[in-house]
What does this fold into?
Amino acid sequence: MELLNKLSSDWNGIKEIIPYGFGWEAGRCIDKLMQDFTIPFIIDNDSSKEGTDYKGIPIMPWSQAKGFIENKKVVITTRYRQYYKIAKSLETEGYAYGTDFCNIKEFIPEWYWKNKSKCCLYTVDMTVSAKCNFKCKNCNMFMPYYKTDVRYCLEDLKVNIDQLFKVVDYVCYIGFIGGEPLLFMQLAELIEYIKANYSDKVGNFTIHTNGSIKPSEKLINEMKKYNITVAISDYGEQSPCRDRMLDTVVYLQKQGVYVDVRASLEWRDVGFPMNPHHFSDEEMEHHMKLCSADWRGINDGKFYYCNIAWSAEKAGLITLEPDDYLVMEELAKDIGKGKESLLKLSEGHFDKGYMSFCRKCGGCGVDNTKLVVPGVQL
Ligand code: SF4
It folds into this structure.
């Protein structure tokens, strides 16, 4: 496969890996990695973790670990800023990306495809509510601009999940998103359904919420039972009800739920739908690459490279082109090819080089310099 080529050939057949970073991201994938690899130790530079272990695997800082690292493959189990910091420090010491180390989100699809012929994704998001109780002017899912009344029921979402797992072998974590996902009243039942039917195919879940709605007792029980992360967006002073959000954080923490408050200092204004961009054919491929969108979506029985594009169409604002997404039922007709096609799209491989909606969308890359205050309400 053309695009799954970030790892050098000597990663094939490896039996041992060293995870670097033992925070939230590692928690999403460590058990899966332990099933399939020997992990002699985990690297983490947080002094409070030094000398501790995870299920018998010692955790040690890089200063100690580097004495044992020769000829070993390191998988960085952190993302975003933290990932770049670790990658840079390894490169400074002479280790090479793709040969000596790589990123978990690239390792999972590539290694399992090449070594096990399995279609494994690090993460995929699923919209459970196309409604929101906020009206963020620059919502990147365009919720305030929906022209249609979209409602999901439990049965729709179960079918969506069934279609996903007909093709996909494993997902480290599924993100439930909206709109506001806590407006979907049967989230607990959906989680139970996934766990009952696909517990060997999914590592964990994250619920992305604005924190303004307290989850039901039933849902809190599910959160605790399955160690689900509640990722709460903090829009700061612009939040329509920040006090309520802070109350929710304290309430969930008291209940023993893992809460990850994500403060947004700025958003990139994608322009759409009020001031859509008009990128030319020549600009498109580069523009999409710079964006490097990190949000795959499974919605309505279709797999999307970018959930933003799905939402723009669902809102009734645009019509996507047929090769902008994959229809899961079609992929399931030839599973081998279906898995390959899904991995290709997930890597951003489009036959024409880009996804059509990128023409109108400013994206999140460095070519979009229009920064806006998050959470400003219409
Ligand atoms: S530029 Fe394209 S890939 Fe990036 S957010 Fe916009 S639609 Fe998605």
Summary: The first helix runs from residue 24 to 36.
